[in-house]
Design goal:
single chain; two-stranded antiparallel sheet; 10 helices; globular; three-stranded antiparallel β-sheet; alpha+beta; 269 residues
């Protein structure tokens, strides 16, 4: 072994940064990632998210187990961490800072497309000055009209439906402001200044409607190929830039690899 090799090995051992921790467990992530996702690309996205946000990196350094749990959940779903497919949210708890993983609206839609049963997915919010009508049995889908030149007002509804590949329309998910309030009250980490519930509520209204729709249409982490070709791609996810806030507090570091995250109730992720 050369001196350069020894020096490199020692440097890697000394690197205890969150990004280094992610690379340490690269094999574990690659094992659970869907087959169509390239592990190298996914790892670059994950480590890039940590480098872009000092608050996220700080929380991950203080509580690495929470980072690994969130990334393991994202990997199992095949979603890009630190993007609008899958948010990585630093938050404070009584135990100290931690990282919380939240599936975003684009992630919910991506999982529907991968299953191959839908040809298109419509997810939208309705504001108080929009025109909206949907009567089950009378309409197969909502009628939504928007005056783009006017002030649309506050968010009042969110809805989602899918057009299936056989031409049928799925059940329609419609959520009122009261429905969203219930989901918000159950949402883990929603009070964090870094939570998308705080800085991008529209995205979370969309996610909530898409999440309800996912109960009625097939979803899959693996991409399912149809005899007549692949399903259409969902819109590419954009990196998430978290807002600035006070630094998170210190907490004890836990180095053990976490167990796979348990399924959560509606609204929690």
């Amino acid at each position: 072994m050369t001196t350069q090799t020894v020096t490199s090995a020692v440097a890697q051992q000394r690197d205890s940064s969150p990004a280094a921790l992610v690379l340490k467990y690269r094999t574990d992530f690659a094992t659970v990632l869907p087959s169509h996702i390239k592990p190298e690309t996914w790892l670059r996205i994950a480590t890039g998210a940590l480098r872009r946000s000092p608050q996220l990196a700080n929380a991950a350094e203080k509580n690495p187990t929470s980072l690994l749990v969130a990334l393991l959940d994202a990997a199992r779903k095949g979603l890009e961490p630190g993007t609008e497919q899958y948010y990585l949210v630093p938050r404070k708890t009584k135990r100290g800072p931690e990282v919380l993983g939240i599936t975003g609206y684009q992630g919910e839609v991506e999982l529907m497309y991968r299953a191959g049963a839908v040809s298109s997915v419509k997810v939208e919010v309705v504001r108080e000055h929009d025109t909206f009508a949907y009567n089950p049995g009378e309409h197969d889908r909502p009628v939504h009209e928007i005056n783009w030149r006017a002030n649309r007002g506050e968010l009042v509804l969110a809805y989602a439906y899918a057009k299936m590949r056989d031409g049928a329309t799925s059940n329609v998910s419609v959520l009122s402001a009261e429905d969203i309030a219930v989901i918000l009250s159950k949402a883990e980490g929603a009070d964090s200044p870094f939570s998308p519930w705080q800085w991008n509520p529209k995205a979370m209204w969309l996610k909530s409607a898409a999440h309800q729709l996912a109960k009625w249409v097939p979803t899959s982490a693996e991409r399912v190929w149809q005899p007549d070709g692949p399903p259409p791609e969902a819109p590419p996810a954009a990196p998430v830039t978290l807002p600035t806030a006070e630094d998170v507090v210190d907490a004890e570091v836990v180095n053990d690899w976490p167990a796979a995250p348990a399924d959560t109730a509606d609204g929690e992720r």
